[in-house]
Amino acid sequence: MQKIHKLLVANRGEIALRVMRTAREMGIQTVAVFSEADRLSPHVRFADEAFCIGPAPSNQSYLRGDHLIQLSLQHGVDAIHPGYGFLSENAGFARAVEAAGLLLVGPSAGSMDMMGNKLSAKNAVKNFDIPMVPGTEGAIVDLHEARLVAEQIGFPVLIKAAAGGGGKGMRIVEEIAGFDEQCRLAQSEARSAFGDDAVFIEKYIGSPRHIEIQIMGDKHGHVVYLFERECSIQRRHQKLIEEAPSSCLTPEVRKAMGEAAVRVAKACNYYGAGTVEFLVDEKLNFYFLEMNTRLQVEHPVTEMITGLDLVALQIKVAEGEALPFRQEDLQINGHSLELRICAEDPANNFLPDIGTLERYIRPQGPGIRVDDGFEQGMEVPVMYDPMIAKLIVHAPTREQAIARMLRAIGEYDIRGFATTLPFGKFAFDHPAFRSGNFDTHFIGHHFTPDMLQSSEAETASVAALTGFLFGEPGEKKQVAASTNGQAVSLWRLNRAH
């Protein structure tokens, strides 16, 4: 075994802090890296050492794998944790880390290669009894043949980028008339986003749930599943809300999906933390979608229901330790929900709304966890992902978890730009979510921007009256004008607070 004494976290923001906190508890020194835009970030102050690695653009800083390795060697680093995003699923970086004599807190480069491309992943698992969505086995090279396959499996079909993610290079085709054009558009977008224009066809499942299984493997061939996460509420094919366990799975289906995920992991000799994603239809039939060879943004909900620290397990696996438990030792404890709080405007198609955190007050109390990387007064950089925090709650039951989440959202005070908090309140309180009867089309079927307007108008009126009652005389005059003479009752003011 190779013990880790000093760990460089090749990431930023909340995930950098998350990894460093566990490392400190394990007695491991931490090294932070930061771009010029992140100089004042909390993760920089938290680390034992911190180094600027370049200008704000990620291709000049966080994606400079050669620079990160050189920095590690110069400062006595034993291992690198890539977090998620950036270099976390880059097989070339993984090989370079190993070649430099360093440990990567993550899977092998071979596993990344095999699972990093959707087509190679499907090919790797096809002999391991994994349910697959009907479609092409390889990339489209001939449009005529592709049309024949599409007609054979039946419209609608989904054209997907082999190297894709986040909805890029993806097209739903309803009928044969638009097939050729949509195929060319998907190839063009895939080429632009990933440098690879390979696309393939799958049967489009109309009302799917997006459910993923967390797995953990060690270097001794042991793999377990840590149950599922429901990730169906998404915008632009990117997740906004996650929960564990799912509200729709039976114990039998959960076990079948978990065992299938373990087989996927064994198909590529996987070790470390990984996630196997599935589509689940109305009859609870499940189909392999892809594997993510890294820690996921939504890993906290799994930690909450299992009591495990996934980052600590990652580090121990990287050092060569065997998993300290078997599948039969694991059980689900309670229910957990997560809301991604992004600097986006739900009333404007969830477009980014970057600015300064003029006010930032976190919720508190039992069963509440906030993973973030920002503080009041900080700018949210425009060149990175707009997520500023993850709000996670845990409670004995799903109903209690929903109530706790709504209470936490009410306590969260973020000002300076629009966020996804109002959407979170809408979603968690919606009958479809409460009943568990929803799918990946939740936003399209249930949400329109005007649904937030009445709530925001009431909040603005309450804030205005608060200023009128307690502000300076000059402020009262200005606030009174902003209410347009509309009365707001003191009962409503007290109720809002």
Describe the structure.
- Helices cover 37% and strands 23% of the residues.
- The strands form 5 sheets. An 8-stranded antiparallel beta sheet has the order 13-12-9-10-11-14-19-18. The protein has a 5-stranded parallel beta sheet with strand order 3-2-1-4-5. A 3-stranded antiparallel beta sheet has the order 7-6-8, covered by helices on one side.
- It has 497 residues and is α+β, with helices and mostly antiparallel strands.
- Helix 5 crosses helix 6 and helix 16 runs antiparallel to helix 17.
- The longest helix has 21 residues.
Secondary structure topology:
Elements: E1 6-9, H1 13-25, E2 29-35, H2 42-46, E3 49-54, H3 65-74, E4 79-81, H4 91-99, E5 103-104, H5 109-116, H6 118-125, H7 143-153, E6 157-161, E7 171-173, H8 179-194, E8 199-203, E9 209-217, E10 223-235, E11 238-244, H9 251-267, E12 272-280, E13 286-292, H10 299-306, H11 310-319, E14 335-342, E15 344-345, E16 351-352, E17 359-361, E18 368-372, E19 387-395, H12 398-411, E20 413-415, H13 421-428, H14 431-435, H15 442-446, H16 450-470, H17 473-482, H18 490-496
Parallel strand pairs: 1-2, 1-4, 2-3, 4-5
Antiparallel strand pairs: 6-7, 6-8, 9-10, 9-12, 10-11, 11-14, 12-13, 14-19, 15-16, 17-20, 18-19
